[in-house]
Design goal:
With 607 residues, this protein is an alpha+beta fold. The longest helix is centred in the last third of the chain and has 21 residues, at 526-546. The radius of gyration is 22 Å and the shape is globular. It starts with 7 loop residues before the first strand and ends with a helix.
Length: 607
């Protein structure tokens, strides 16, 4: 029997109602580790990357890693993979909580959804018992009510991953929500699930995840916990204030994106900061499965606010997306918008980015007055009613503007003739770091296989957050190509293993590789571990090339290349992308068009 991996794939043909269990391809598992890498291999082999992402030929894969469901620190991650409805590139969206471990406890490493159900359904998995059930009674309901209803008719201890109205309405920024507040957020994976008429996958498992060397694994876990509890990032910043702790710092140096990246400092940053959240709206912190950090925030809107509610969040990215990027400094409004995104299942980064794009289009007169005439709010920066109202239009595709918002920021800006006002890459919105003040992040945004993403290559950790003697100058392009490759390959391994990337703010790759070996019984050295990350990155690139993407898509908006930032430490900076990109292609072993060379593919076992 395998260790770490549980050895079974659950394949569900929605068109014909067929349920098949098949052995996990262990050769692929060893080559691509699990999770993101293994899911990418299955997707690459099984679909045409040129297919319609909202058509029945696309597949949606829920994949866990070999450390998912073990007691490795933060071993609770799973990924949703498909061809992205937002970017037309590969999508791999990562979530925590408890759903991924539950799938492993039920005996499955992966669920593959194929075809399209003739009517709304949900999948009920209870160990070996698997059913496709009618979901017409929960279609249209938000994620919280859906979870309550489905648990009441299956098992009160079941875990639910599903979509809300946004996914049902094929909103291209729709996500998958599990445990009511954890999101597989990016790239529109919720729309791909909605296109298959699947409302949710409900899982209850009573098994366990065996590890190959329990004694060594336990020792490594204890060593890892000690390191995590001594790290200033994981033990103090993330545990104390969550990711919202970042707001004050990025604003102070001038890279907190504001008003659709027109500025890098927000005059109302303090009222929406992590400190303000902790002092006014925080109920408690919260962790995912096997998490010693507890970065999540359980919050409740208090005081005489126009909006009321409670739930989970917001994260730093949400505070930027629904706050500073839209010019909104009302913390209650940001919390309420975050709760709506969880209930309707939308990516807070891309939802906020789309609204910010719409606000700039409107303020510059590019949206005709007749398209705005019936709105019950004024579409402008700083108006929280506009943020709340646009979320509803987007999730439910209400009216002409709602349909355009639901297509995402790039398509919205393109429709009105100004795609240059979309702040993102490959049709996916930037995260909460202005790349003009962190040029390695600019290269990372441009080359990320799933579209603009900070987590695919987090060079912020060496451009701004490292000790001074270990830091790379954020305003220089020197060394950024090699740094991005290293961070990108590193992130591929982390996502594939099944642990949270926040753990690696404390744990080095050799520690994670050792945990993987003790869990699976493999014997990878650090060189082989890093090679696996490079292999995964290149396979994703090959998927995108087959889908029609290439060098033309590895770029940044003109604003990043030509319009200098003002204020803070980043005065006068733009991103000099082309020389970094050329060096990056050389470091990667790709040709001048960004295609992996034959010798690179041969070295990685991808020939």
């Amino acid at each position: 029997m395998p260790y770490g991996w549980v050895g079974t794939v659950l394949r569900i043909d929605l068109t014909n109602g067929r349920i098949v269990r098949e052995p996990l391809n262990m050769d692929w598992a060893r080559q691509f580790l699990g999770g993101r890498g293994l899911g990418t291999k299955y997707l690459y082999e099984e679909i045409d990357p040129r297919c319609d992402p909202l058509g029945p030929d696309n597949k949606v894969i829920f994949a866990t890693g070999p450390l998912t469901g073990t007691y490795a620190p933060t071993g609770g991650r799973y990924m949703v993979l498909c061809k992205s409805p937002l970017t037309d590139a590969i999508a791999c969206s990562n979530s925590g909580g408890y759903w991924g471990p539950e799938l492993k406890f039920a005996g499955y490493d992966m669920v593959i959804l194929e075809g399209k159900a003739p009517k709304p359904v949900y999948i009920w998995v209870y160990n070996d018992h698997v059913e496709i059930r009618d979901a017409s009674h929960v279609w249209g309901k938000d994620t919280a009510h859906t979870e309550d209803i489905l648990r009441s008719e299956t098992d009160p201890q079941a875990r639910v991953a599903g979509i809300g109205p946004a996914g049902e309405n094929l909103c291209r920024v729709a996500c998958v929500i599990n445990d009511k507040g954890r999101a597989a957020g990016r790239s529109g994976v919720g729309a791909a699930m909605g296109a298959k008429n699947v409302k949710a996958i409900v899982v209850r498992g009573t098994g366990a995840v065996p590890v190959a060397d329990p004694v060594a694994f336990s020792r490594l876990v204890m060593e890892s916990l000690e390191i995590i509890n001594q790290s200033p990032v994981t033990a103090h910043a993330l545990r104390g204030l969550g990711t919202a702790s970042t707001v004050g710092f990025t604003n102070s140096v001038g890279i907190l994106p504001t008003r659709n990246f027109q500025q890098g400092q927000f005059e109302q940053a303090q009222p929406i900061s992590g400190q303000a959240l902790a002092q006014t709206m925080l109920v408690r912190n919260k962790g995912c499965y096997s998490c010693p950090i507890g970065c999540a925030r359980v919050t409740e809107i208090r005081g005489p606010a126009k909006w009321q509610g409670k739930g989970e969040g917001p994260e730093y990215e949400t505070i930027f997306g629904l706050g500073s990027d839209c010019g909104v400094g009302d913390l209650a409004a940001v919390l309420y918008a975050n709760y709506l995104c969880n209930l309707w299942a939308m990516d807070t980064i891309s939802a906020g980015g789309t609204i910010a794009t719409a606000m700039e289009l409107a303020e510059k007169g590019y949206i005709p007055p007749e398209d705005l005439a019936d709105l019950p709010f004024e579409l402008k920066f700083g108006n929280p009613d506009a943020v709340i109202g646009c979320l509803e239009l987007m999730a439910f595709r209400k009216g002409k503007l709602g349909n355009l918002l639901a297509e995402g920021g790039y398509r919205l800006a393109e429709y009105y003739g100004h795609p240059e006002l979309f702040m993102g890459v490959k049709k996916q919105d930037f995260a909460a770091y202005d790349p003009r003040g962190a040029k390695g992040m600019g290269l990372g945004y441009a080359t990320s296989n799933r579209g603009a993403c900070h987590l695919r290559g987090y060079t912020m950790s060496v451009e701004w957050f490292a000790p001074p003697n270990q830091r790379l100058d954020p305003f220089s392009i020197e060394g950024k190509a090699q740094a991005q490759k290293t961070f990108q390959d590193k992130a591929a391994c982390e996502d594939s293993s099944g642990i949270c990337t926040f753990t690696t703010f404390a744990l080095t790759p050799d520690k994670l590789c050792a945990l993987y070996n003790a869990a699976t019984g493999e014997d990878l050295d650090l060189e082989a571990w890093n090679l696996a990350g490079e292999r995964i990155w290149n396979l994703e690139r090959m998927f995108n090339i087959r889908a029609g993407l290439g060098r033309k898509d590895d770029t940044l908006p003109p604003r990043m290349l030509k319009e200098p930032l003002t204020g803070g430490a980043v005065q006068g900076q733009v991103v000099e992308l082309e020389p970094m990109l050329e060096e990056y292609y050389r470091v990667r072993g790709w040709d001048e068009e960004g295609r992996p060379l034959p010798e690179t593919l041969a070295r990685l076992g991808l020939a």
